[in-house]
Amino acid sequence: MLALHGYFPKTLSPYPIGTPKLETSIVLCKDRILKVNCCNPNRQTERGIEFDIGGAFYRHESSTGRDLGILAASVDRQSKGGLRVLDAMCGCGIRSCRYLMEAEADFVLANDANDEYRDLIVGNLKQVERDETRWVVCHSEANRVLTERYLQRDFFDLIDIDSFGSESMFLRSAMLALRLGGLLYLTNTDGYSSGGHRPRHSLDAYGAFVRPLPFANEIGLRMLIGGAVREAAVLGYHVTPLFSYYAYHGPVFRVMLRMNRPKILENRDYGFIGYCNRCGHSQAFSWEELGKIGCSCCNSEMTTNVSHGH
Ligand SMILES: C[S@@+](CC[C@H](N)C(=O)[O-])C[C@H]1O[C@@H](n2cnc3c(N)ncnc32)[C@H](O)[C@@H]1O
Fold first, then answer.
1. What is the residue with the minimal CA distance to atom 9 of ligand 1?
2. What sections of the protein cross the membrane (predicted)?
């Protein structure tokens, strides 16, 4: 699967035969220390929360991305006095557990299309929160659950979409289910597109014709933000990036956006990024400058990408 190319943690593979039956052991994984339960390798600990990963997709390296989402949610709850979270692709449910426990969400809707994870997700949530009015688990396709919430006028303060690949198909339904002023936490794990190796695919997904550039990781984030800006504009809203985060594993590109009241897009928000293959200079260009793009070093043509330029 494209989204999963690259580094896989070998330390989570089965233990050698004869591993002593210790309660926990410390395993070095790249530059991090993992605490793993030897009796049950599916048992994990993240920021003090113990949970089961069963057969669900879980990556310890993604914990920083989860930390950032939980921090933003927590700050948002403090400023608004309430927090309702929709975790659209929850896997084993660790993210939902953390939104409940650490961000003190009033309510979390934990969804994963795979209904075989039901007992796993429910078990993990029950361990952190016995009050079952504070969470619900469902198993719908993400677009369906988001659209149903929108049709019920049941809006959320934060929607977290932890998807694989460059799946921009959830943008519109997520924006519709979001409360005005709410937070949208998006993901892209398509390193081929951000690296400029699939320009037609990035054009379809995000409206960005990306070509190989030395700052591919930044382009990957701008491509994702740009796609969201365009989709919000279609609905008559505008989104503001609060933070973006690139992680080498995957790779994973994550951006947190706030959805704001309608506003006419300013040209400086959306344009082109040029890169001179001769001198290495890069520059942003507006739509009005299209056709006049060149580099002052030699008046040569620049490689250009349509991208968001906040
Ligand atoms: C990257 S994993 C989620 C990991 C989890 N959020 C975490 O932090 O550990 C993506 C999950 O999305 C689910 N999924 C894939 N496509 C989906 C869709 N269209 N709608 C809902 N869930 C989907 C998969 O079953 C998988 O568990």
1. 58
2. none
Look at residue 266 in the predicted model and tell me its pLDDT: 64
User: By percentage, how much of the chain surpasses pLDDT 70?
Assistant: 81
Whether residues 218 and 289 fall in one domain: no
Q: Cα–Cα distance between 286 and 273 in angstroms, integer?
A: 9
- Please report, for the domain that includes residue 147, its CATH number: 3.40.50.150
Kindly state whether residues 224 and 284 are assigned to the same domain. no
Residue 129 has pLDDT above 90, yes or no: yes
Q: How far is the CA of 8 from the centre of ligand 1 (A)?
A: 18
The reply to whether 158 and 223 lie within a common domain is: yes
Residue 230, CA distances (Å) to 122, 170, 233, 234 in order = 36, 13, 5, 6
Query: CB of 89 closer than 6 A to ligand 1?
Result: yes
pLDDT at position 60 over 70: yes
Residue 25 inside a domain? The answer is no
More confident residue, 52 or 262: 52
